[in-house]
């Protein structure tokens, strides 16, 4: 060194400043974060404008998800393989105007449950008497999720049940029972599926459906032909299950058209959702894949075109486990939230919030990941998430559940997991090469995240202070106004854990409006109908969904929070038939559920 | 990472450009070209990088830090191959959704060469130092590359072969070879001790992170001891230290092992040199 001691001292000071800068950054970031202190209901209401209270017991719901027991050759890693299947979907199956809840269990012989809303704050399981409880019989596989859509436009929502096993379609007989129509519909004999959704992809007024395979459909997880059934890469796997697109032919018949329509993938799909991202009138399909990149199938009404890489959402491979849409900036554009894995000290994938890039739209649509900028990036081993206005302040908030395997609190499987995950496909794809879990946890007992949208581009995590304090291994989240009070309640399905119902108490200062849509020319469920609310000089768009998040389906009713002094300008509904209907302020009542039928 | 046959004092050679030499394995830029190939092939084929922007930031920060510090402290413009390798290594090996770790890691890596010096030489491999510091102090934000080469054997074989040839021409294959042999041997020892399948213990070696580690980090001529025999012994100790850390389930065992063993070996070597110099001085004085 040519310079003297002073220069070297200055250099050393700068150097150690850089070395310890991560600690400074950490301190600054934690000082900006919301306090983790738990608040009572009154304090939470005053601070956040809402409070969640877990009421499942009081509501008469005591459902506990049970996991399957697969081939004994997987015993050493059973907790991580048999780690999904807790799902929740909201449906008003009997058209009484009150949301009901369908939940799945995954143990061989375990019963699924359909909780009918009793209108008095309680629910009653009616699945056994209606014929959709005993659906996990040995040899047929076990439930992984369920989505509801009125495929025959008779006014009653029908049930599509996906399994690691035989998928099932149940026709809803006027809310009085369910009739199994799987064979007539032409469903495949076996799909190891973790995601499905209803949508009318071609706009013909009949609901079609998509099923995304996870494990290869030739794999019977109870009777393995080979232990080479794991993903062949942690981030580039293409040995997963195939995808299915069933086109509704009418008369209860469907045709499988995935290849013909441009959907051909063997990635490991975990979550799918559809929304019209480009204003074409046709729903685009977003698929979040585990062990790889996400896929975005743009729909031109005739065919799907995979545009994940072109739009920016399918470049960096992660562990996609959720796909949900939300107009988070009240600009009439959807962002997409994809959950991934973040574990301190091992793997920091970060969740993705794909926000449309300024100046891009239609066929030039591009997304950029702004999860870090918005503050919704780190969520642990993240699973299901949903957007919704939980405090009715006029902006969409985000609820995320998480946690993978909670066993021994003091022992972690992460080291062994990371070791094998980096291995070559010849090693990683064979389950017998995986180290034994031996009762260790893998991202277990994680705190949940409930990010409040402040309307100016930041989300603040208020989960602990707002009452979302459980640490179960969360999988599916669904939003519904369960008690017709104008507040979105939160239902969470947990793996090997209880179904949680968080009842939402919202400050009455904040107003709301809801829309219950019914298609006539369009599919009767109105899945795909877009409602754009214009008020106080801003707009927000929402869409009736046939499945979103992870293994979940929100209520079909559209809920808007409006803030304190709303002045509604207009409401524009674009039906799947592409008819445009505009409601005036006189015909859109705040504080009410507005029932809207598609004009003929 | 290493600066194969590149002096840090930046001595430049004025000679007519020789295309034959440029494409030969004797070219001193062969290591930078090799790591660039890994980067480009890895990303174009499998999207290995977090993003071009982050890797670009790491490379630019590294180059700028080297330029500024060399000019200030040595009074001359440096040859940038070393800083380029450090920057690109940080860009590949660091995995973080944030941007700042790429900048901080690159700057810390380069600065360590100028601050942490003994006997007028730096004692930590720059990017090893930067990465070890970052994963230790910012585990909530930073991880390292832990994935595969898209599961194709061919790219892995090509890189192993090409890397081996280049390292052999640079006369440092004995270091890589010793380490790989020790790792495999100790993987079986770990398997015996833990009861885990041996395949899971060998698995990390098949990933690109280790390809960078064994071809670029442990062979760094500036931060390895001088004698060939002791280079082999030291890298074997690195492998043993790594095994100890792995038995304690330390995820970043290789980085920490090199971080601990590499400078220790250099300091011991320096101590021996001092002692022998003193011995010579005393002998001369008493003669």
Would you write up a description of this structure?
The complex is a heterodimer of chains A (600) and B (287). Chain A is 12% helix and 35% strand. Chain A has 11 helices and 40 strands. The longest helix of chain A has 15 residues, at 5-19. The radius of gyration of chain A is 24 Å and the shape is globular. In chain B, β2 (117-118) and β3 (121-122) form a beta hairpin. Chain B is globular. Chains A and B meet through α1, α2, β21, α9 and α10 of A and α3, α5, α6 and α9 of B.
Defining key terms:
A: 600 residues, 8-stranded antiparallel beta sheet, 5-stranded mixed beta sheet, 11 helices, 35% strand, B: 287 residues, mainly alpha, two-stranded antiparallel sheet, 4 strands, 3% strand
Secondary structure layout:
The complex is a heterodimer of chains A (600) and B (287).
Chain A: H1 5-19, H2 21-32, H3 41-48, E1 50-54, H4 78-81, E2 88-91, E3 100-103, E4 113-117, E5 123-125, H5 127-130, E6 141-149, E7 158-165, E8 168-172, E9 178-180, H6 182-185, E10 191-199, E11 208-215, E12 243-250, E13 253-256, E14 268-275, E15 284-290, E16 295-299, E17 304-306, H7 308-311, E18 324-326, E19 335-338, E20 342-343, E21 347-348, E22 352-356, E23 367-369, H8 371-374, E24 382-388, E25 397-402, E26 408-412, H9 414-421, H10 425-428, E27 440-441, E28 449-453, E29 459-461, H11 463-466, E30 473-480, E31 489-495, E32 500-506, E33 511-518, E34 530-535, E35 538-543, E36 552-553, E37 558-563, E38 568-574, E39 580-583, E40 593-597
Parallel strand pairs in A: 2-36, 26-27, 33-40
Antiparallel strand pairs in A: 1-32, 2-3, 3-4, 4-5, 6-7, 7-8, 7-10, 8-9, 10-11, 11-12, 12-13, 14-15, 15-16, 16-17, 18-19, 19-22, 20-21, 22-23, 24-25, 25-28, 28-29, 30-31, 31-32, 33-37, 34-35, 34-38, 38-39
Chain B: H1 19-22, H2 30-46, H3 52-74, H4 81-93, E1 94-95, H5 100-115, E2 117-118, E3 121-122, H6 126-137, E4 143-144, H7 153-169, H8 173-194, H9 198-202, H10 208-217, H11 228-247, H12 253-286
Antiparallel strand pairs in B: 1-4, 2-3
Helix pairs in contact in B: 2-4, 2-7, 3-4, 3-5, 4-5, 4-6, 5-6, 6-12, 8-11, 11-12
């Amino acid at each position: 060194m040519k310079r003297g001691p002073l220069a070297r001292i200055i250099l050393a000071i700068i150097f150690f400043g850089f070395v310890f800068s991560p600690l400074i950054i950490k301190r600054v970031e934690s000082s900006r974060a919301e306090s983790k202190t738990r608040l009572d209901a009154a304090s939470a209401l005053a601070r956040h404008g809402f409070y969640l209270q877990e009421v499942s017991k009081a509501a008469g719901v005591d459902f506990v998800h049970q996991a399957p027991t697969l081939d004994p050759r997987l015993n050493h890693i059973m907790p991580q393989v048999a780690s999904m299947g807790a799902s929740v979907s909201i449906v008003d199956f009997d058209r009484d105007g009150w949301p009901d809840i369908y939940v799945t269990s995954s143990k061989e012989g375990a019963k699924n449950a359909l909780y009918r809303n009793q209108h008095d704050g309680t629910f009653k399981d009616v699945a056994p008497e209606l014929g959709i409880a005993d659906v996990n019989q040995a040899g047929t596989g076990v439930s992984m999720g369920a989505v509801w859509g009125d495929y025959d436009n008779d006014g009653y929502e029908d049930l599509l049940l996906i399994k690691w096993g035989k998928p099932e379609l149940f026709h809803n007989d006027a809310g009085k029972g369910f009739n199994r129509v799987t064979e007539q519909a032409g469903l495949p004999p076996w799909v190891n599926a973790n995601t499905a959704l209803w949508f009318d992809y071609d706009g013909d007024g009949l609901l079609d459906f998509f099923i995304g395979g996870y494990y290869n459909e030739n794999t019977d997880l109870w009777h393995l032909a080979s232990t080479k059934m794991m993903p062949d890469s942690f981030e580039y796997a293409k040995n997963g299950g195939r995808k299915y697109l069933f086109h509704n032919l009418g008369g209860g018949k469907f045709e499988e058209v995935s290849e013909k329509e441009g959907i051909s993938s063997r990635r490991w799909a975990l979550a799918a959702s559809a929304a019209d991202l480009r204003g074409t009138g046709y729903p685009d399909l977003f698929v979040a894949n585990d062990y790889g990149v996400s896929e975005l199938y743009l729909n031109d009404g005739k065919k799907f075109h995979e545009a994940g890489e072109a739009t920016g959402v399918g470049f960096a491979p992660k562990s996609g486990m959720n796909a949900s849409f939300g107009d988070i900036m009240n600009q009439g554009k959807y962002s997409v939230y994809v959950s991934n894995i973040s574990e301190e000290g091992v793997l920091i994938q970060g969740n993705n919030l794909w926000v449309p890039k300024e100046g891009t739209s239609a066929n030039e649509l591009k997304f950029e990941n702004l999860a870090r900028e918005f503050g919704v990036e780190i969520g642990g081993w993240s699973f299901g998430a949903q957007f919704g206005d939980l405090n009715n302040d006029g902006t969409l908030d985000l609820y995320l559940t998480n946690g993978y395997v909670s066993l021994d609190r003091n022992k972690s499987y992460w080291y062994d997991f990371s070791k094998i995950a980096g291995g070559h496909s010849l090693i990683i794809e064979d389950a017998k090469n995986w180290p034994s879990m031996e009762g260790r946890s893998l991202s277990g007992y994680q705190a949940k995240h409930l990010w409040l949208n402040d309307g100016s581009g930041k989300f603040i995590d208020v989960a602990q202070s707002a009452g979302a304090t459980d640490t179960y291994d969360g999988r599916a989240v669904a939003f519904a106004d369960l008690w017709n009070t104008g507040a979105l309640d939160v239902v969470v399905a947990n793996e090997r854990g209880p179904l949680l119902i968080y009842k939402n108490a919202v400050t009455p200062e904040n107003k709301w409006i809801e829309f219950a849509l019914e298609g006539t020319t369009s599919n009767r469920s109105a899945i795909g109908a877009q409602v754009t609310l214009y008020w106080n000089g801003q707009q927000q768009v929402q869409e009736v969904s046939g499945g979103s998040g992870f293994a979940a389906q929100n209520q079909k009713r559209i809920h808007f929070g409006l803030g304190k002094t709303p002045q509604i300008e207009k409401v524009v509904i674009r039906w799947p038939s592409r008819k445009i209907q505009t409601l005036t302020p006189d015909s859109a009542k705040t504080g009410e559920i507005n029932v809207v039928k598609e004009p003929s | 990472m290493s600066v194969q046959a590149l002096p840090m004092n930046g001595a430049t050679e004025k000679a007519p450009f020789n295309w034959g030499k440029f494409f030969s394995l004797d070219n001193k830029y062969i290591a930078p070209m090799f790591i660039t190939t890994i980067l480009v092939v890895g990303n174009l084929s499998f999207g290995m990088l977090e993003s071009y922007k982050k890797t670009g930031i790491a490379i630019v920060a590294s180059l700028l830090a080297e330029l500024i510090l060399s000019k200030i402290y040595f009074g001359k413009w440096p040859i940038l191959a070393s800083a380029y390798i450090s920057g690109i290594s940080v860009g590949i090996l660091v995995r973080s959704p944030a941007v700042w770790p790429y900048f901080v890691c690159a700057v810390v890596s380069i600065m360590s060469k100028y601050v942490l010096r003994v006997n007028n030489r730096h004692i930590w491999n720059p990017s090893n130092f930067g990465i070890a510091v970052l994963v230790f102090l910012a585990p909530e934000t930073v991880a390292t590359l832990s994935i595969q080469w898209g599961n194709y054997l061919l790219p892995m074989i090509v890189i192993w072969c090409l890397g081996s040839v280049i390292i052999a021409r640079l006369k440092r294959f004995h270091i890589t070879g010793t380490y790989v042999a020790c790792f495999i041997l100790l993987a079986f020892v770990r398997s015996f001790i833990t009861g885990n399948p041996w395949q899971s213990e060998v698995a990390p070696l098949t990933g690109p992170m280790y390809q960078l580690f064994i071809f670029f980090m442990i062979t760094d001529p500036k931060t390895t001891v001088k004698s060939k025999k002791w280079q082999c012994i030291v890298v074997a100790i690195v492998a043993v230290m790594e095994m100890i850390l792995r038995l304690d389930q330390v995820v970043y065992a290789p980085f920490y092992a090199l971080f601990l063993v590499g400078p220790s070996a250099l300091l011991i070597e320096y101590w021996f040199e001092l002692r022998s110099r003193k011995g010579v001085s005393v002998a001369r004085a008493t003669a």
